[in-house]
Amino acid sequence: MTIGYITIGALDVEKALPFYDAVLGVVGYARGPLDGGWAFYGKEGAPGVGICKPHDGQAARGGNGVMIGFKADDHAQVKAAYDAALANGGTDEGAPGYRPPEATSGFYGAYVRDAAGNKLCVFTGM
């Protein structure tokens, strides 16, 4: 079984789009048209990503312990996505680097949160 798509709750979908356009654009996702309050991003061979207001009408909020990881091609993409997130209203949750920090190869990632508190990782090396 594979993941077909994920959805990320937004406080305001239209205001969230510059953040997601920038971050997901760096790793090769393209956004389709805004339709019915939803914005969907696609990338060949990867699950779709939908940005929407929560169906239950409650405010969007980041889930404690929930994180979405987006695979980058290289270290430069990781850094570019991290920089794009911070430039578009995101907050730092861990600058680009190896994990664990004392490693010199392997998993390399950066962590950010969007305006609703959703945690994202952009990584390479797995």
Question: Rough shape?
Answer: globular
The CATH architecture = Roll
Radius of gyration: 14 Å
Which structural category fits the helices and strands? alpha/beta
Briefly summarize what is shown.
By secondary structure, this protein is of the alpha/beta class.
Account of the protein in words:
The protein has helices at residues 13-26, 75-87, and strands at 5-9, 30-31, 39-42, 48-52, 67-71, 91-98, 108-113, 119-124. It has 2 helices and 8 strands. It has a single domain, classed as 2,3-Dihydroxybiphenyl 1,2-Dioxygenase, domain 1 (Roll). With 126 residues, it is α/β, with parallel strands linked by helices. Strand 7 (108-113) and strand 8 (119-124) form a beta hairpin.
Features:
126 residues, alpha/beta, 2,3-Dihydroxybiphenyl 1,2-Dioxygenase, domain 1, 4-stranded mixed β-sheet, 2 helices, 8 strands, globular
What's the layout of helices and strands?
Blueprint: E1 5-9, H1 13-26, E2 30-31, E3 39-42, E4 48-52, E5 67-71, H2 75-87, E6 91-98, E7 108-113, E8 119-124
Parallel strand pairs: 1-4, 5-8
Antiparallel strand pairs: 2-3, 3-4, 6-7, 7-8
Helix pairs in contact: 1-2
